[in-house]
Amino acid sequence: MKLIIGLGNPGREYSGTRHNIGFAVLGELARRNGINFDKRCCHSRAGEGRIAGHEVALAKPQTYMNLSGDAVASLMRRYRVKLSDILVVHDDLDLPLGKIRLRANGSAGGHNGLKSIIASVGSMDFARLKIGIGRPEPLDAEHRDVVDHVLTGFDATERNIAEDAIGKAAEAIEIMVEQGLEAAMNRFNRVETRPVIE
Q1: Quick one: how far is CA 46 from the chain centroid?
Q2: Do 4 and 129 touch, CB atoms closer than 8 A?
Q3: pLDDT tens-place string over residues 154-176
Q4: 3-state DSSP assignment of residue 66
Q5: Catalytic entry in 19, 43, 90, 111
Q6: 79 marked ligand binding residue
Q7: 112 is in an annotated binding site
Q8: CA 103 – CA 138 distance, rounded (Å)
Q9: Residue 19 annotated as catalytic
């Protein structure tokens, strides 16, 4: 079984924000594969099903981003999976808006959700799919606060780019489940979803 975890914050006030793009990818993946988030367990909303004939569990932790590791550790115990069987989907400030990138492992890179997961599972050796949200642009000679940036939604132009990336990310996960992480990395790490806003 593959355990695919999308990071975000619970609650309507966070729906559609940049920080919740991991939730959006899981929602699109579930829609494409007829999976329902009908379970409440392990501090998460979860659903089980099949992608390309392979058994998967999808989960959206409900712990808030900074405590994502509590949910991930609990989910791993419930589904009896190893680190090599999980994929964490999350936003990334250091990637341009709309770009996606798969990685086999790595540091938290300043992402609080990843920091929590690494602390809870005791390792950085798990795959992740990063969705670029870009860094905030200067506003009137001042830099927009990063926290404000990740907790705001996309404007109309950005939304089109983000929706493209969400669809591409769901496709990348399907390829990873069917053909393996390396095949998905080879195919998607070189693809720009759409031109980046200048």
Answers
A1: 14
A2: no
A3: 999 999 999 999 999 999 999 99
A4: helix
A5: 19
A6: no
A7: yes
A8: 29
A9: yes
Q: What is the mean pLDDT of each run of 10 residues along the chain (198 residues)?
A: 97 95 98 98 98 98 97 98 97 95 96 97 98 78 70 92 97 98 94 44
Q: Which residues of 22-44 are buried (b: 16+ CB within 10 A; e: fewer)?
A: bbbbbbbbbeebebebeeeebbb
- What is the fold, at CATH topology level, of the domain defined by 2-188? Rossmann fold (3.40.50)
Rounded (10°) CA dihedral 47, 52, 55, 60? -30
> How far is the CA of 12 from the CAs of 9, 16, 38, in angstroms?
9, 9, 18
Q: Confirm whether residue 66 is marked as ligand binding.
A: yes
Instruction: List, for residues 118-146, the tens digit of each pLDDT value.
Output: 999 999 999 999 999 988 876 544 445 78
Confidence (pTM): 0.91
Nearest CA to 189 out of 89, 101, 128, 106 is that of 101
